[in-house]
Each structure stands twice: as structure tokens, then as C-alpha cells.
Amino acid sequence: MSRIFINYRRQDSEGYVGRLYDHLIRHFERDDIFMDVDSIKPGADFVQTLEDAVAACDVFIAIIGPQWLHAVTESGERRLDQWNDFVRIEISSALRQNKLVIPVLVGRAKMPSPSQLPDEINPLARRNAIELSHNHFSHDVEKLANIIKESVPANPSFKPRATNEVLRRKEAALKAVRLDLVNATTSPLYSFRVENRLFPVIGEGSPDANILFIGEAPGKTEAEQGRPFCGPSGTVLDEMLETISLKREDVFLTNILLDRPPAKREPTPEELAFYTPFVDRIVDIIQPAVIATLGRFAMQYILKKLDLPEKRQTITQLHGKLIKTHIHYGEIHVVPLFHPAVVLYSASQKDTLRQDFQKLRLFL
Ligand code: URA
Fold first, then answer.
1. CATH code reported for the domain at 164-363
2. Nearest CA to ligand 1 atom 7
């Protein structure tokens, strides 16, 4: 499944785009090709709406026709220079989000040079373009379709629906993990848990989830209730899940520490060493196709566990990326995400988190 966003200027290339669409649907599902962002509601931030639409795609096709560069508004100003030009906003958003951006030349248009473009879409000029010629249209679209199929983070893994028997077995295995932890008096957080009448937090959700979220550690509310993400970070997480039409019951939520550490402090190496074998057991039971890590502790652990080359990179470098690899039960994608708590301290991070969550739509 490759989600393809076609960016074009109506008065420049509408005819070509219609023809391109008719050819592309021979290679891809109709629902995976987006041409026009659905009506933007009154009062909505249209820039954000366009950004979200771009975030949901894997491949961004920028159609460049003969009028693309010089098209003007009614008052004679170049459209590309206008801050609210949809074409410009979408291209700049795709470049910023590191999408695969393919310029597609139609109507004998030439690729613009960097000096002809506004700064924010200037890198478009460096992208290798493909031309759709009038005489070889089908052949050229086929070439484009093959490029898309080869370059997209292809065939994100999906799991077949588990039978009731499998679900029962997995539920029982998760209960066993909980019981082992309850009785593990050697845990570095055992006395803190018992003295404060707290619960361990194994996790919650579908025992056969396609997507497993791993956070940092239960907070006070979570440890009092024995459930993950039921405090303020959980409210943010629920909101993010809602943006991609997911419910908690569709995924599994756990943490890299399964007991609350005192005084909101970060996990210690000793605690990580104790709890991560339990987390490994949870991964092995659920066998997710996607592990979405929330925050740097879970990210570092999973990247190291899977011995990925990205293990030395920071969360600032890796957030929102899809990292495809193998685990003993098959193919898996790791998606590092910021921890929802960042939104509690910095509202501006909410947009980033929301955009990164859009990546998970590939696996729904
Ligand atoms: N923060 C986490 O990392 N996990 C929780 O369960 C709650 C808050």
C-alpha cells in the first residue's frame, strides 16, 4: 500500500492530472491516491489541514506544467510567491517531512532552477524529475508507478486476525508476566511499590495488537490504578490515537519500566536491566508488526535490542521515521515518537507529535 499525494495547479495541468490518475489506478488502489484535500471546514487552520494531508502520504508527486512557474493571481502577482498558495504550502510541507518528492513534468515543461523558486521549496529543484510525454504517456506512467512501488516503505506488515484460541493463550501469557513481576522481590522498585501500595503496570490493550506502544514508566496515577497511560500523558496519547482513528483497545500500551520510579525521575541503568527482559516477553507474546516507542528510553532500548544502525542517533533525528527490520518472528517496523509528555511542557511539539502519529496510518 503506497499512499500517493498528487500536487498540481488546476489551471496549469488539470487535464494531465486526470489522465495520470486514470493510469495510476491500474497500479494502485483508488483510495490511496489523493488529489484534492477535502473541503476545509470554516475556522480550520488550512495550512495545518494541508500539512496533515501531506503527512499521511508516502510519495508526493509535484506536477509541473507549462504555467506552473509563472501562473499569476488576479492582481498579477506570481502565485508561487504567495504565502497562502496551496501548491507551495504542500510542496514545502512534503520537503520538510522528508517525503519522497517526485517532480513530474507535463506539457513539455522544464524543471525550474533553484533561483526561480521561493527559498522554502528551493530543494525541489534538486529532485530528479520524470517526464510524462504526450506520445508515450502510458509507458512513462508505468515507469513512475515502478519508481513508486520500489521506493515506498513497501508492504507494511499486517497480521491476520487471531483466533479466540490464540487470544486466550496470549492473555494467559500476559497474566503470567504480571504474576512473575508481582512476586519478583529482587526488583529495584519492589519495596517502593509495596511501601506505597502501588501496582505493577504490565500494559493494556489487544493481546494480539498490530501496533505496540512502549512508553517510559508508569506515573503516580498509573501505578495507583495498575493501568498504563491513564494520567495526563494518557490524555495526550488518546488524543493522538484519535487523530488516526485508533482506540486503545486496537493497540497494546506498555512501558520500558513496569513499576513506577520515585519522584518522577528517569529510569536508572539498573532498573532498565531488570525490567527489559519482562518487556521482551511482552513483545514476544504480542508479536506486533510495529513497535512505536514513546520517548528516548524505549527508543534506545528497542534500537539496541534489534541492533539497528540508527541506535546511535537521537530521538530528535529519528522521530517519525519508519525503520524496517527483522525480529525472530518476522518483519517489523520501529517508529520512534516523542513521549506524549513533551506536549505537556511544550505546546508547539503537539503538531510534531500529531504529524509523526500520521505515519502509523500505514499500518491500520
Ligand atoms: N508515562 C509513561 O511513559 N507511561 C505511562 O504509562 C504513563 C506516563
1. 3.40.470.10
2. 229
What does DSSP say about strands 204-205 and 252-255: parallel, antiparallel, or unpaired?
antiparallel
pLDDT in tens, 76-102: 999 999 999 999 999 999 998 888 999
Give 244 Cα–ligand 1 centroid separation in angstroms. Answer: 20
Phi, psi dihedral angles at 173 (to 5 degrees):
-65, -35
The model's pTM: 0.65
From 114, 166, 107, 149, select the one nearest 132 (Cα to Cα).
107
214 CA to middle of ligand 1, Å? Answer: 9
Cell 532552477 sits on residue: 113
Distance (Å) from CA 53 to ligand 1 centroid: 29
Q: Where are the domains of the chain?
A: 4-151, 164-363
**Ligand 1, pocket residues at CB < 6 Å:** 215-219, 222, 228-229, 231, 233, 255
Distance CA 11, CA 8 (A): 9
Instruction: Examine domains 4-151 and 164-363 and report if their fold is the same.
Output: no
d(CA 60, CA 67): 20
Homologous superfamily, domain 4-151: Toll/interleukin-1 receptor homology (TIR) domain (3.40.50.10140)
Residues 262-321 have pLDDT tens digits of: 988 999 999 999 999 999 999 999 999 999 999 999 999 999 999 999 999 999 999 998
Name the residue of 216, 259, 345 to mutate for ligand 1: max ligand atoms within 8 A of Cβ.
Answer: 216
